[in-house]
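Entry type: protein chain
Record version: 2
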Amino acid sequence: MKTCLLHAKTFARIRERLKGLEHKVEFIVMDEDGLFSHAGDGTIVHDIRPDIVFGNTDVWFGDHARDFMIAVLKTGGIDWFQSSAAGLDNAALISVGKISRLYTTNHTQSEAMAEWALWQAFDFLKRGPQHRAQQGDAVWNRLEMREMMGSRWLIVGFGSIGSAVGKRVQLLGGHVTGARRSPGPADGSDHIVPMALVKSELEQADIVLLSLPLTEETAGMVDAEFLAAMRPDALLLNLGRGQLVDEPALVEALDAGRPAFAALDVTTEEPLPETSPLWRHPKIAVTPHDSAVTQATYVRADETFLDNLGRYLAGEPLKHVVPPETFID
C-alpha cells in the first residue's frame, strides 16, 4: 500500500478518477487550515510519511504552503514527487528534489501562458493604454495601430511555452524566430537560432518574449546592452523569471525610448514591493505572476498527475522525469 499526500481541494477535484485505487493507495490531504487527515475517514494524521506527493497550485497559492513543504521535507525521503510547475529554480522544490527518488514536472501551463503573451501583444499593437487614456478623458481621436499579421517575434527560450506562443502567432500571420540551445526545426517557429545570436536578432523583432529558465548564464541577460539593441517601437515580454531582466536598466531604457513598452508577469522580487517603480511606470504593464492561473491549467496539471500515477502503480516509466543529478550541488 502506497501513501499519497496532496491538497484537499485537489483530491475533491479528482476523487472520482481515483476510484478503484483504494487497495493500492492511501490518500492523505491537507485542508485549507493546514490540517492533515486521511481522505477516507477524516482521521487527523500527525506523522506524515508519504511515498507520493503532488505539489500544485492548490498548495502553492494556499495559506499553508510552508506547512505542506515542511511536512514533506521532514520525511527525509519520498519515492516520487509530482510538481505542477515546469521550473526548477525554486529553493524549496530543489530541496524536495534532493530527497525524492523520482521527481516529475508538468508543462501544460504553457497554453494559458501563451494566451497571456497574445493578450499583452495585442494590447500593445492596438495601443490599448492610449485608447483607455482617451476614453478616460472623453477624447475622440483616431490612433494608428499595428497588426499581428506580419509582426516579427523573437522568442528567447523555445521550449513548451515558446512553442505554444509561436504556433498561435503563426496562425495569426506573424513570423517567429526561436532561440534555444539545441539546433534544428521546432513546432511554432519559422527559424531557430542559437542563444549566442540572440542580440543580433533584436533589431528585426517587433516583439521579444522571454520564456527561458533562470540559470547562471541567463541571470541578468536583459541588460542595458540588450535593451539598447532592441527597436524603439518594440515590445518586451517576460514570462520566464524576473531575474532575467536588469530592472533598473529596463526603466532607464524605457525612459530613453528603447524599447517602447514592457509587459512583465514576473519580477525580481515577488510579491513586487509597493514602492517599486515598475508599478506606476507608464510604459510597463505588470501582472502578479498569474499568467498560468486558470481553471483549465489546474485540470491539465491534474491530468499529468493521474497519468503518471497510473504509470507509477503499473511500474511503467513516468513522463517529465528530472534527472537526479539536476539536484546535486
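Comment: Residues 295-314 form the longest helix (20 residues).
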